[in-house]
Specification:
The structure holds two protein chains of two kinds. By secondary structure, chain A is α/β, with parallel strands linked by helices. Chain A has helices spanning 44-51, 73-76, 95-105, 110-123, 139-150, 169-183, 196-202, 220-227, 242-250, 274-284, 299-307, 318-326, and strands at residues 6-15, 18-28, 33-37, 59-64, 67-68, 80-83, 157-161, 188-193, 205-210, 213-218, 230-236, 258-260, 263-268, 289-295. In chain A, strand 7, helix 6 (169-183) and strand 8 (188-193) form a beta-alpha-beta unit. In chain A, helix 3 packs across helix 4, helix 5 packs parallel to helix 6 and helix 8 crosses helix 11. Chain B has helices at 2-21, 23-44, 55-71, 73-85, 87-92, 100-126, 136-163, 167-183, 198-204, 206-218, 227-253.
Chain lengths: 327, 255
């Protein structure tokens, strides 16, 4: 495993009494996308800050592109790109000037830095806005500029810390497309996110972390198996149809469908054709449908399945509990 | 070392680009000192007694020292913004000189202070200021002294900027700390006109040393202390505050 692009072993970091990372292990193969999935405060950003040399770990070790994040920090900085959740661009500079500055700070010759800036603005669909100060950019444009800045030096390892948090759905989608086209270029990417959907779409492997511990690791499919896959939800028009609906849907699902008011819920193994199939079965059983959806598992579902609590809640005794699950 | 110089220049250029794009900063750099000159010369000037010299001649060296010392507030403003907006993280993740974020700031302040100096002298001459009995060498030495004072204060403001949670507080902390210091000195009035206690404080105040040194170089007053002492004060401020700012920068950046 020594040829992995990112190797993290027993990484620990505390802020005062708060343990942000309690001995975390994970690794990423070269050219792969690793998703670090977890709620706010799980330790994702702390891990990224350590891996990008911004923060020194209290314990454990981490190597990126074969270089130790503490001992070889100077050499490592030439091999990584960082795009953060706060879109670190200079608002008073234009898009072009931002990228030119970053290129010059990588000690690229000025002409090369400028050519690279033009090239990236083109790739990130910012050419029209290139001469405008970044403070006039929309949230999505700023994130794209931030990501472009991380790519100026074509780093072999790229860190994206919650690249779409706070973006509207349209900007998020376009950001995903941008990231996908970048990851195809062969660099290794570590992506942190609060959204399972995002990790699902972009990451080859997902590491779920909570309260500074890794609580699960695997491909998106493996995790979903542990969560129980997708769930069909049917809202009935008449309460009286409940029994008929449950028996009509029972054949589609491995488990017996459950009832909640007028909503019938059934976990599904497959996705394609499920809704059409369900509608046909319910119609022939004479059940009137008010609404029907196929719900994909959310981060909440993953957390509920893995830890027994929801991602957003902060019940007491939390860290101990997470450690038990990890063990 | 070469890399530090190159990075400093890249970041200084970046700092300077914002000035014409933020008209309020340009105002702070030009209109504010002009207002000070006009208020003091024409409002207080008649009531302040400066034996042997016109008040405008007495005032200009002091007000130039004060304005240039405050020039560094752009550093406080800029640094606290960079911390808040995450730009410090970007810089620290790049294979660039670590010192350049601070040296780029303080160096661009020097260039901005040159601009201020031009405006201040222009207003001063318009209000009736003249160099008295001073050689070209003395005028230039005075200008070097004033720019050095500005440089020293850039490091103080860098420290202030790194301690503040927002650009607004950086601004007000800077002014609250330094404003009274300039008034309890010979910047605006002769120290010997002050009551006991305040007078001793003013005489020990480096702003008095600096103002008196600038006066002796530009209008031929006998210096209160030697001119060289004013350079020593600059050196002391830089030697004390530059390492403090660097230490604070490391701490802030490593959060």
């Amino acid at each position: 495993m020594t040829d992995d692009a990112i190797v993290v072993e027993g990484l620990e970091k505390s802020y005062g009494n708060v343990r942000a990372l309690c001995g975390v292990d994970f690794a990423a193969r070269p050219g792969s996308v690793l998703g670090l999935l977890g709620p706010n405060g799980a330790g994702k950003t702390t891990a990224v800050r350590i891996l990008t040399t911004l923060l020194r770990p209290d314990g454990g070790s981490a190597r990126v592109a074969g270089l130790d994040v503490v001992k070889d920090a100077d050499a490592l900085r030439a091999k990584i790109g960082l795009a953060g959740q706060y879109a670190a661009v200079d608002e008073n500079l234009t898009g072009f000037e931002n990228l030119e500055m970053v290129g010059e700070l990588y000690h690229m010759p000025r002409a090369e830095a400028r050519a690279r800036a033009d090239e990236l603005l083109e790739q990130f669909d910012l050419t029209d806005a290139a001469k405008r100060p970044a403070k006039t950019y929309s949230g999505g444009m700023r994130r794209r500029l931030d990501l472009a800045a991380a790519l100026v030096f074509r780093p072999p390892v790229l860190f994206l810390d919650e690249p779409t948090t706070g973006l509207d759905p349209r900007s998020r989608l376009s950001m995903w497309e941008t990231i996908e086209s970048r990851t195809e270029a062969g660099s290794t990417v570590l992506l942190t996110t609060q959204y399972l959907e995002e990790a699902d779409r972009l990451a080859d492997r997902i590491v779920v972390i909570d309260h500074g511990n890794v609580i699960a690791e695997g491909t998106s499919d493996e995790l979903k198996d542990r969560v129980g896959g997708e769930r069909l939800e049917v809202v009935l028009e008449h309460v009286g149809d409940c029994e008929a609906a449950v028996s009509a849907l029972a054949e589609l699902s491995d488990e017996r469908p459950t009832l909640q008011g007028t909503t019938v819920m059934a976990p599904m193994r497959r996705r394609s054709g499920v809704i059409a199939d369900a509608v046909l079965r319910l119609q022939s059983a004479g059940v009137a449908i008010d609404d029907i959806t196929l719900r994909r598992p959310t981060l909440d579902d993953v957390f509920l399945a893995l830890t027994g609590h929801r991602a957003e809640e902060e019940p007491e005794g939390q860290p101990e509990r997470a450690e038990e699950v990890a063990a | 070392m070469n890399a530090t110089v190159a990075d400093t220049l890249v970041l200084a250029r970046r700092n300077l680009k914002r000035i014409p794009r933020q008209p309020d900063l340009l105002v702070a750099y030009t209109i504010q000192p002009v207002m000070f000159v006009l208020l003091f010369v024409f409002v207080f000037g008649g009531a302040i007694n400066t034996p042997g010299y016109d008040y405008v001649d007495f005032l200009m060296p002091g007000i130039i020292v004060q304005s240039i010392a405050f020039g560094g507030f752009v550093t406080a403003l800029g640094l606290s913004e960079d911390v808040k907006k995450g730009l410090i993280d970007r810089f620290r993740s790049l294979p660039m000189s670590r010192a350049a974020v601070l040296t780029g700031r303080t160096f661009s302040d020097v260039l901005l202070n040159c601009l201020s100096l031009v405006v201040l002298f222009a207003v001063g001459f318009a209000a009736g200021f003249n160099f008295i009995d001073s050689s070209v060498g003395q005028v230039i030495l005075g200008i070097v002294l004033v720019l050095l004072i500005g440089y020293a204060f850039s490091w103080i403001f860098a420290l202030v900027g790194l301690f503040s949670s927002s650009p607004e507080t950086a601004n007000s902390i800077g002014f609250t700390l330094i404003f009274p210091l300039t008034f309890a000195s010979s910047v605006f009035v002769p120290a010997n006109s002050m009551p006991d206690g305040l007078r001793q404080f003013a005489e020990a105040n480096p702003f008095t040393t600096w103002s008196d040194a600038a006066r002796s170089l530009w209008i031929g007053t006998p210096p209160h202390t030697d001119v060289w002492m004013s350079f020593v004060w600059c050196a002391v401020f830089i030697v004390v505050f530059a390492p403090l700012a660097v230490a604070r920068y490391r701490k802030v950046a490593a959060k």
